[in-house]
Design goal:
Elements: H1 4-36, H2 42-68, E1 79-87, E2 91-93, E3 96-98, E4 100-104, E5 112-118, E6 123-127, E7 131-134, H3 151-160, E8 165-173, H4 177-181, E9 188-196, E10 203-205
Parallel strand pairs: 4-10, 7-9
Antiparallel strand pairs: 1-8, 2-3, 4-5, 5-6, 8-9
Helix pairs in contact: 1-2
Length: about 210
């Protein structure tokens, strides 16, 4: 069993409590108006404010843990990291040979939106937002440094494949109490793809 049950329980509690507070305020305001004709009572107003603060803090805290809390990809106690490597295969189109195909959006009028590449077993397309094409000996570009890439293994793959390989890193949330509070256990925390090619000319854009 994962700790996600605790997150579901607290989310349910937060929403039930918020609904109860709204109902409490409505009922007591109607009773106040019916009994006294007044719309404002200092004691009741203090209760309303207190109840609402608790409700908003509870719901806000759950929202932060579920949707807004950032993740440290290097924290092995919080996430599990797996990296897969495969040599790239040359593809051809119109007499041109390439390792990676850059697909532009909106009819080719804008920047590359995705990359398509082939290995010995499959052809795959990844979003350019979570992928980088590497054409130099600096195998870990700035935009990928938030991820814990094993530099020695990248160098080994670079040598063994003659500078043409793909490295795909998948990050998954571990079964911890904090991840469970945010309903994140066993869910993807991030993914990034490094596409290493020998030269910029082996990236074809269309």
């Amino acid at each position: 069993m994962t700790w996600n049950w605790l997150g579901w329980l607290l989310w349910l509690g937060a929403l039930v409590y918020l609904c109860w507070v709204i109902h409490y305020i409505r009922v007591h305001q109607l009773m106040l108006i019916a009994k006294t004709g007044n719309r404002l009572d200092k004691m009741l107003m203090a209760k309303y404010v207190g109840f609402l603060l608790v409700a908003f803090c509870w719901v806000g805290g759950m929202y932060y843990l579920t949707f807004a809390r950032s993740v440290d990809y290097r924290d092995q106690a919080a996430v599990k990291v797996t990296t897969q490597y495969a040599p790239l295969q040359l593809s051809s189109a119109g007499g041109d040979y390439y390792y990676v195909l850059g697909n532009k959006s909106a009819g080719g009028k804008h920047q590359v939106a995705s990359y398509t590449y082939a290995t010995a077993t499959r052809k795959n397309t990844v979003s350019a937002r979570y992928a980088t094409v590497v054409t130099t000996d600096e195998l870990i570009p700035a935009e990928a440094r938030d991820y814990p890439w094993p530099a020695a293994r990248l160098q080994k793959e670079d040598r063994n494949t003659t500078h043409a390989f793909v490295a795909t890193m998948d990050v998954t949330y571990r079964n911890t109490v904090l991840n469970g509070l945010g309903l994140r256990v066993n869910r993807p925390a991030g993914q990034y793809t490094l596409l290493r090619i020998p030269a910029p000319g082996l990236l074809k854009e269309q």
